[in-house]
TrEMBL record:
Protein name per its UniProtKB record: Glycerol-3-phosphate dehydrogenase
Its EC number(s): 1.1.5.3
Biological processes per GO annotation: glycerol-3-phosphate catabolic process
A Pfam match: DAO
InterPro entries for this protein: DAO_C (IPR031656), DAO_C_sf (IPR038299), FAD-dep_OxRdtase (IPR006076), FAD/NAD-bd_sf (IPR036188), G3P_DH_FAD-dep (IPR000447)
CC cofactor: FAD
Top-level EC class: oxidoreductase
Species of origin: Agromyces atrinae
Domain Alpha-glycerophosphate oxidase C-terminal positions: 420-542
């Protein structure tokens, strides 16, 4: 097995500080553009000041969706592209993107018919007004018209109160109808992004990537890069620089000496609840509806937990991005609105997270009506190096955005496209068994030494990349983690050794779902630090520091509580 050190990646940049294209920001849009350019044979490098996909892309609602509500904004091009990309991802990334049945509770028949055209024309929200059955029916009919793609997802359906409550008996009995349609879930967004990154790196030595490297300046010598751990700096030159730092785009441009005022992102928060009663009440469906304040919100079963979100609040990018207690109160209010007989409280929160959407500056336009579409802004760095900044964009359209941007960059380089990413399988989606019988064949053939059940779990977790994991597992003695027996010691070793892990937080937040589902305590963090530290040659002191930093960060950013004794031992 090829071991890949993240610091070795940094050395490859420092030893050859030049590329055709440098991408600053390794969220999903930056990573997808990296993959596209790498597949064209372009000499491309990507850096991020934190871990890969650790910023806005790590704070998503875990959905791949067409954006039905964007129809009201008149964004028909975006909806069409989003639905097409959703349908494509169901085929190219079937290990992480699955059909998601979505139900809208509806409380009136005609509400919103008069106000909707005004919102459409002015993009001013005015007094919030619930959308009634007629308006939702029109929207879903239009949505279905964009969704025709060989039956990727079924068409929508409407039912009245009696049938709705028979299907989902814990819904508010005062509703009049429900509308049910299909979008798609993305149960592991960070892992999907890591697969996209791995595809780019697999293109060859022309593709290089390094995390924990920030762009702190620019001159005629190139972009000034800094190793965020050691503080060491060096210049890196490129023929084209792409700013893909999402909501931080203006701050990155300022740091590189090219002031901009492109961004006006809004904060969206979520909580993850361990509430079996609420989980059962969803019937495996996402519940998607409009709250009384006009905000579109969701209650979404995921990984045996329930994800509740999201808000849409103005945010200053120089300030911390956290889910506040006021937002938690808001989430509990909306759960009560939909499932009035189910009690939720703070003791059931196992994880909370917040991110800022990379929206364009929108002045007095209501946040909910700001375009989720993307655009590319041209500029220049010192010495005349072309700079392209991405403004906007969302998870669902990452491949299409990357194709658009890559085409522009290829034009700047005087090159032409040689490979299309349209329909190209992503990572462990290649060869993924599409039927139950095919899945049984795969798990049987790969389960000789680890068992079919374990092979099936790894297939679900990594797609067909699980074959590489299994090869590593059987090369040595292995045992389940004491604190999380669905993972094993050698599996964590494999992640640390092959997926550019730098810190313990990279493992618990992005290489696994351990933080998301509320599985962490101090003893598990220590167990993980021992395994990761062994793989990355950490000293005993380094391991203690990583555990302490994980406890601090998870408490401040994600609301994870450790006992006073556990916290004290971390100091």
């Amino acid at each position: 097995m090829a071991h890949t050190s993240a610091r070795t990646d940094l050395d490859t940049l420092r030893d050859r500080p030049r590329a055709d294209v440098l991408i600053v920001g390794a969220g999903i849009n930056g990573i997808a553009t990296f993959r596209d350019l790498a597949l064209q044979g372009v000499d491309v490098a990507i850096v991020d000041r934190g871990d890969f996909v650790s910023g806005a892309s790590a704070a998503s609602s875990h959905m791949i969706h067409g954006g039905i509500r964007y129809l009201e904004n008149g964004e028909f091009r975006l909806v069409r592209e989003s639905v097409q990309e959703r349908n494509a991802l169901l085929k190219t990334a079937p290990h992480y993107v699955k059909p998601l049945q979505t139900t809208i509770p509806i409380y009136s028949t005609f509400s919103g018919i008069l106000s909707a055209p005004l919102r459409f024309l002015t993009h001013r929200s005015g007094k919030p007004q619930e959308r009634g059955a007629v308006l939702i029916k029109l929207g879903l009919a239009a949505y279905d018209s964009f969704s025709r793609d060989g039956g990727s997802v079924p068409r929508h359906r409407f039912v009245g109160r009696k049938k709705a409550l028979a299907e989902l008996p814990r819904l508010d009995p005062s509703l009049k109808y429900t509308a049910t349609y299909f979008d798609a879930s993305m149960h592991d967004p960070e892992r999907l992004a890591l697969d996209v990154l791995a595809d780019g790196l697999a293109a060859g030595a022309n593709a290089r990537a390094a995390n924990y490297v920030s762009a702190v300046g620019a001159s005629s010598a190139g972009v000034r890069l800094r190793d965020t751990d050691s503080g060491e700096e060096f210049d890196f030159s490129a023929s084209v620089v792409i700013n893909a730092s999402g909501p931080w785009t203006d701050l990155t441009n300022d740091a590189m000496g090219t002031a901009s005022r492109f961004m006006g992102g809004t904060k969206g928060s979520h909580v993850v609840l361990d509430n079996p009663e609420l989980l059962a009440a969803t019937g495996g469906r996402e519940i998607f509806f409009e709250h009384s304040d006009g905000r579109i919100v969701l209650i979404y079963p995921l990984k045996g937990r329930v994800l509740v979100g999201t808000t849409d609040l103005e945010h200053d990018m120089t300030q911390p991005i956290r889910c506040t207690e006021t937002e938690v109160d808001y989430f509990f209010e909306l759960v009560k609105h939909v499932f009035p007989s189910i009690a939720v409280d703070r003791s059931q929160i196992v994880f909370r997270f917040a991110g800022v959407r990379p929206l364009p500056r929108h002045e007095d336009e209501a946040p909910g009506f700001v375009s989720r579409d993307y655009r590319l802004e041209r500029g220049e760095l010192a010495g005349g190096t072309p700079l392209v900044s991405i403004v906007g964009g969302k998870w669902t359209t990452f491949r299409a955005l990357a194709e658009h941007l890559a085409n522009d960059v290829l034009g700047l380089l005087g090159r032409t496209r040689t490979t299309s990413t349209d329909g190209l399988a992503i990572g462990g989606g290649a060869g993924y068994p599409a039927t139950e019988s095919a899945r049984r064949v795969w798990t049987t053939s790969h389960g000789d030494e680890i068992g079919r059940e374990r092979a099936d779990a790894l297939l679900e977790r990594y797609g067909t990349r699980a074959s590489s994991v299994i090869e590593y597992l059987v090369e040595g003695d292995d045992e389940p983690l004491e604190g999380a027996p669905t993972y094993t010691r050698r599996e964590i070793e494999w992640l640390a050794s092959t997926e550019r892990v730098v810190h313990l937080l990279d493992v618990v937040l992005r290489r696994t779902s351990l933080a998301f589902v509320g599985a962490l305590d101090r003893s598990l963090l220590e167990e993980l630090a021992d395994i990761v530290g062994g793989a990355l040659d950490w000293s005993a002191e380094h391991r203690r520091d990583e555990v302490a930093e994980a406890i601090r960060f998870l408490g401040e950013q994600h609301g994870l509580t450790f006992t006073a004794d556990e916290a004290a031992r971390a100091l």
